Amino acid sequence: MPALWIAHVTVTDDAAYGRYAALAGPAIAKHGGAFIARGGRYVQLEGKERARNVVARFPSLEAAETCYRSPEYQKALDHARGASERELVIVEITD
């Protein structure tokens, strides 16, 4: 079953986070991920508001988790650590 990678982010260092984004996109694509929402308009209804919300669709929960743990994505994530506050969850799509 397909899965969604959902991230809620507050960027605290634009330059470092830009380096993360430049590396993360190709790593996500390599694992079959495709962005369906990235930093667009949103309405916060509950919980902590984050200015950047990202959703990527993957072929499976396993593919999304493999991407996260991959050396390519971890290299990208090194730039996001200390440059953002984030929450990330992977959710399997059900019918």
TrEMBL record:
Entry coiled-coil feature ranges: none
Listed SUPFAM superfamilies: Dimeric alpha+beta barrel (SSF54909)
Signal sequence, start to end: none
Residue stretches making up the DUF1330 domain: 2-92
Pfam families to which the protein is assigned, alphabetical: DUF1330
Classification via InterPro entries: Dimeric_a/b-barrel, DUF1330
Gene3D superfamilies (alphabetical): 3.30.70.100
Top-rank taxon: Bacteria
Name of this chain's protein: DUF1330 domain-containing protein
Lineage: Bacteria, Pseudomonadati, Pseudomonadota, Alphaproteobacteria, Rhodobacterales
